[in-house]
Amino acid sequence: MTTLATHAPSSDYDPFDADVLLDVHLHDGRLREVAPVVHIEKYDFYAVTRHAEIQKALRDWRTFSSTDRPFYQPNPFRPNAPLMQDPPDHTQTKSVMMRIFSRENMAKMQAYFAESATGLVDDLLAGGAVDLDAYRDVAARYVLQVFPDVLGLPTEGRELLLKFGDAVFNAFGPQNEHHHAKMRSGAPALAWVEENMKRELQDEGGIGAQLYAAADEGVISETEAEQLLKSVFGAGFDTTVFGISGALRAFADNPEQWQLLRSRPDLIESAFEEALRLYPPSRYGGRIAVRDTELGGIAIPAGTKLLLMWLGAGRDPRKWSDPDQFRIDRHDAGSHLSFGFGIHTCAGQAVARLEAKSLLSALIDRVERIELAGEPRRAINFQAFGHESIPIRLVPAG
Ligand code: HEM
């Protein structure tokens, strides 16, 4: 029996409203409960809200193309490759991108990330129990040291990478005053990034040089090599800082989970996945339907632009039991969509996971308790989700 697809229900929900941005879990969660696919009247796109339907769309790249999306217009902060490509172009650029995460490169990172994490945590705890900011003093300090070092970036100006990410993730949304303010405040960061992307500034044999070498081989164009490097700069820093600081917040809110991790360090990987499910650093992605189709029994005409709202899907009760709870021993924590899914799944997830694992390993050996020491403050951003401040107290292990 064939089921006829029905029209998408319409909603006056505005995912970019200032009040919504203050609590996206609440509001995107309410939208998720309306239907798996909802027409957003104000901007005339469809929101895909639930885990199963988002995953289905991401698997079917032939129908849900990456070459267009709601609000798309060229923007110097957002490179087109690899995110806005379909195969065969995407296959080429992604394979070049993945070369930089080769086993050899990852092995070098592993040793360096672990050593740096130990050094940082020893330094933080040198005077005993300490009050600090999990976002600024732990996650940002660590991520801005280790990955830029691997990329061979100068120390001066590194903090601009977070400003750059802030603009990148506010570029994908309506062109309102919030968007324009972020483009203006991100301008110095864009200039720094474009300077440091230059071919002649890349370390010999380093990650940037490896991308330009693929252009020399003719595998990708020079422009694509530049765009790949820009996407590492744009996607590789505040995402990971938000992910790691979100994990620290989750542990501060759930002290028994920290004790569980200390007694079962084999749960480190699943703990980070669980934190990414609960606090996904990326709220949504975009696609366009290039032929008539359906999702969850709802008709989607060719030409429809869609937002795939995976932050809300991370707490979809159809997929997760007790979705609002942080439980590091969930057996399927890693099946969240916070790194995307399908051919565009996050290129840098191995690096992000390695950074998180290295830091958490150093902390579980040395920290008895992580306590919340003040009110966390959210970073307000269209597409990125995270905190700009999480006051915590680290109590060292005896
Ligand atoms: C916790 C940290 C991170 C999170 C949550 C995250 C999230 C994501 C998500 C959701 C996507 C899919 C976008 C889509 O399908 O529309 C993606 C793609 C991507 N990410 Fe990440 N990311 C993280 C870290 C990184 C890092 C460290 C890098 C670079 C070193 C990176 C580079 C990329 C690139 C280049 C893509 C595009 C892949 C493609 O189009 O095939 N990300 N990321």
From TrEMBL:
List of residues binding heme: C346
Cofactor section: heme
UniProt keyword Iron, yes or no: yes
Record keywords, A-Z: Heme, Iron, Metal-binding, Monooxygenase, Oxidoreductase, Plasmid
Gene Ontology MF annotations: heme binding; iron ion binding; monooxygenase activity; oxidoreductase activity, acting on paired donors, with incorporation or reduction of molecular oxygen
PANTHER family for this protein: CYTOCHROME P450 YJIB-RELATED, P450, PUTATIVE (EUROFUNG)-RELATED
Name the record gives this protein: Cytochrome P450
Species in which this protein is naturally found: Rhodococcus rhodochrous
Organism classification: Bacteria, Bacillati, Actinomycetota, Actinomycetes, Mycobacteriales
